[in-house]
Amino acid sequence: MLYAPTMIDLSHLVQPDIGQPARLLHLIDKAGLAEWLGSAPPRIRNHLTAMRFTARPHELVVVPGDNADDWAVVLGVADVANIRPWCLAKAPEVLAGGTYRLAGDARPGDAIIGWALAQHRLTAYKKPDENPQGPRVLLTGDPARLPDRIAEAEGTAWVRDLVNTPAEDMGPGNLEAAAEALAKRYGATIEVTRGDALASGYPMIHAVGRAAARSHAPRLIELHWGREEHPRVAIVGKGVCFDSGGLDIKSSTGMLLMKKDMGGAAHALALAQLIMRSGLPVRLHMLVGAVENAISGNAFRPGDVLKSRKGITVEIGNTDAEGRLVLGDCLTRASETSPDVMIDFATLTGAARVAVGPDLPAVFANSDPLADGLLASGQTVGDPCWRLPLWAGYEDMYVSDIADVGNSGGSFAGAITAALFLQRFVGEGLSWAHFDTYAWRPAARPGQPKGGEALGLRASWHYLRGRYGAAV
């Protein structure tokens, strides 16, 4: 069986509070520090003063209790009244195994997500820790929302594992295996078009992936779930499992992180999991174009003209602008079922990273209400996104002398021109959003290790759940 990172179980890391023995975790912000110190026992006040504790976010001090084996934790947060997903994430990274509860009447809220994710790593390629810590379990007095928050943490962890897996173990076939496992778990159906069978119906996917070894043959993966009478939702992911750049080959440095170029597919799989797991009343159509952009004698070339599924012809100006070709055929297929909303995820352009950095996925949408809803959801749940314009004035950057359009838009506004290219393949009158997401964290933060990352996943999920299901 092909290797694929399994779906994650983090449920043991956060449990309902039914009075279990637990160490206290005191949350303090700068505004409340003086008052808290004033009411603390002298030994604790003196200890914190000696440790120069100032209640900076993620600043953590262990304080002594009344008995020799008794101790508690003091943790700085930005705002005690507004606990965000990563507020508690430093604690489980440094504390000993055991059970913890927040002091007073504080509730962890969305910080459950960060607590759980701080304890997850991809371990398939490392020797076991010689001195493993047991789980750090957080108790919550708000169990009603616990399953939802754990589901989001597990979806995020799955994105991270899929992206972090080396390309040899995360080729198109491995993405197919991951989709098959997902479909089996939730009673979905799956269709896969592979190899040369793509040439007639999905010619751009075929062209990008045909140079790869037979074991990494290209494919279009489609998952269907839900009742026919429910509103249709299409989720599309770019699954370029490794991007050499093709004949316009990348440098060694530019190629180093290209196992992450299937990050859009990882987001699509995780979002599909959240939708099906919750039983959201939609008719889901998830599509992943899975390819390896390799080099061989039959690789597509600069100057070639490809015909797309939509019938638009595309002149290849750069074989390293391949993700938009794969997505073009996927978006055309998704449009054919006339979905109520269509969202795609792709690690598409370096220009988006220049524009908004690694923390923010760039969002493009042909609908203001859709864009506003996604951004508002991201702000609410601590998964921020930033909208960039579909500026029609840049359409002429894709002009081709011999084809309907080129695939390379020149040196300006690369994220915008790539989104404009994709928009050509969206069906008339359909509501569509495009996430140009980095899917990678270049430096570690509490609960957010260096490596694969889900950016825009929870924003999209909360938007869809608010639109089609219960308010969150």
Average of pLDDT: 95
Contiguous uncertain segments of 5+ residues:
none
- What would you report as the Rg, rounded to the nearest angstrom? 24 Å
Strand content: 15-25%
Family: Belongs to the peptidase M17 family.
Organism: Blastomonas aquatica
InterPro entries: Leucine_aapep/pepB (IPR011356), Macro_dom-like (IPR043472), Peptidase_M17_C (IPR000819), Peptidase_M17_N_1 (IPR048816)
Keywords: Aminopeptidase, Hydrolase, Manganese, Protease
Summarize the structure.
The protein has 472 residues and is α/β, with parallel strands linked by helices. It contains 15 helices and 19 strands.
Structure notes:
The protein has 472 residues and is of the alpha/beta class. It has two domains: 122 residues, Leucine Aminopeptidase, subunit E, domain 1; 320 residues, Zn peptidases (Aminopeptidase, 3-Layer(aba) Sandwich), CATH 3.40.630. It contains 15 helices and 19 strands. The strands form four sheets. An eight-stranded mixed β-sheet has the order 7-8-10-9-13-17-14-15, with helices on both faces. A six-stranded mixed β-sheet has the order 1-6-5-2-4-3. It has a three-stranded mixed β-sheet with strand order 11-12-16. Helix 13 links the parallel strand 14 and strand 15. Helix 10 runs parallel beside helix 15.
